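Chapter review: from sequence to fold.
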Amino acid sequence: MAGVEVEGSCEPRFGRVRDAFAENFEQGGEVGASVAVAIGGRLAIDLWGGHRDAARSQRWLSDTIVNVASTSKGVTALCAHRLVDGGRLDLNAPVATFWPEFAQAGKATLPVHLLLSHRAGLPAIDEWLPTEAFYDWKRMTDALAAQKPWWEPGTRHGYHAFTFGWLVGEVVRRVARKSLGTYWRDEVARPLGLDCLLGFGAEHDARVADFLPPPPPPPDVPDFEAEAVHQAGPMTQKAVGNPPKTVADMNTRAWRAAEIPAGNVHTNARALAKVFGALATDGTLDGVRVLSPESIARARGEQANGPDAVLFGMPTRFGLGFSLPPAGEGFGPTRASAFGSLGAGGSIAFADPEAGVGFAYVMNQMQPGMPPDPRALRLIDALYASL
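The token string follows.
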């Protein structure tokens, strides 16, 4: 899409990133997006452009926010690690210590850290639930408390696409005595002035970008993703489709109002880059402690590596709540020590401690395929070529 005006700020040495961002609109099918980079605690890149809607009638503005799908998991994990920093949560303690009902179905001794590393064996709820269950916190956490693990906890890992948020979020709620979205707002977002919301009122709707479904494959090309899910069996089918949802559901008032910590944080690249920039340095942002260096080191330590029991046996690698690049590789050309969160459709945020970089890219036009997205990789390549 030619002729999109790129707005915001970008230090001169990162002109390649601005060019790559513009190229995403011209060649990458971009509709609206923002990209930001924090280096050594300062915001070096803060760009946005395009439109908030499919009709391209509403410009993407400085204060536009968008659903970032599973990039939300970084926010959720950070809240848990803050409670560890405060001495209120022990990752080695049984989940049932904080959430007694969780002891059902043989889970009495399952430790908290397995929830964060996708090794708990609870990627799906066996009982089919309606879409409305997404918006009912108690219904989802009650179902997970009663759920028998799909594998012996700790023996395998498999991506907990949505259940991650309710599992970790309920532990946070029990310990902090407030919902995860409220805890995030009170403890991190508001003190740091971050425009990053988990559950919000209608007063923000006018500035939320519509989440747009990926374009369908051509008529003569099979839908490989749908076929892979079909072939994977009940556990994977329920991990990604129970409760069932469509992209249209993700644009509703009910979705935006709910706290779905694995997949419905609404924010912009600026806020995420600041947070991950803090995690890439000493854990502070504008003089406010986000996480201690000890918690950061623990969070990015490898916990799981190898074939993913949910994602079709593909190799995945996890720390405690954060995705890690495949061994010996990076998110694009980033160092193997980088850690972050990636969302379905294209969004990504990560910290690179070796370079002191916090990177974030968010968008409204989803693209098919497993992350990282080619649009994000184009931006990441341009960034590292400029360092």
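Two observations follow directly from the output. Residues 163-176 form the longest helix (14 residues). The CA atoms of residues 169 and 180 lie 6 Å apart.
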